Amino acid sequence: MKTWKKALSLTAAVAMTATMMPVSAFAADDETFKIGVIGPMTGDNAQYGLGVYHAAQVAAEEINANGGFNGYNVEILDAGDDQADPEKAVNAYNDLLDKGMQMLCGTVTSGSCIAVGAEAAEDTFLFTPSATAVDSITSGSNEFRMCFTDPAQGTKSAEFIGKHKLATKVCLNSTVSPFLATICKKPALLQISN
């Protein structure tokens, strides 16, 4: 069920973002709008990248089945596999540009998003469905985040846990989000009473 909710959320995000794009983003003789996806397609974090890639494919199929947008069909290019490595993400970004990418969905992980964002800056419309680090979206005015930042997630999670008295102790995987781990080490922020 959670997987479908994530897929539907990403589908909606791609559809909304695509409809915001000006027609001038398309080449005059091109009838297809090309979207690239970068994320870990292999390795330990592949579940995240593959989920985003497959959701983008579903979104494109639905958009195209309903006539596209502004007369254009959507094509999801072969995914760029960055294996959650910033250097590989930049290489994947350049490869997708060579394939005619006009918008980037991703990158999926924060470190890769920071690296690609610096490379893309004002040149590419970029939105990340899942990069939560504050610095993930700071390089250009064409960059957007479709999720909450680490500080927002940490604070709201702690407030919710404390308010609903769901736990007196919380264990986090700090490799996923160092910021969340830092927030939750401070009992006052957790608002958890014994």
Descriptive terms for the model:
194 residues; alpha/beta; six-stranded parallel β-sheet; 45% helix
Characterise this structure:
With 194 residues, the protein is α/β, with parallel strands linked by helices. 45% of the residues lie in helices and 13% in strands. The protein is built from seven helices and six strands, in the order H-E-H-E-E-H-E-H-E-E-H-H-H. Strands 1, 2, 3, 4, 5 and 6 form a six-stranded parallel beta sheet that branches. Helix 1 (2-20) packs across helix 2 and helix 5 (150-163) runs parallel beside helix 6. It is globular and about 55 Å long. The model is unreliable at 19-28 and 187-194 (pLDDT under 50).
Question: What topology emerges from the helices and strands here?
Answer:
Elements: H1 2-20, E1 32-39, H2 46-65, E2 73-76, E3 80-81, H3 86-98, E4 103-106, H4 110-120, E5 125-128, E6 143-145, H5 150-163, H6 178-184, H7 187-190
Parallel strand pairs: 1-2, 1-3, 1-4, 4-5, 5-6
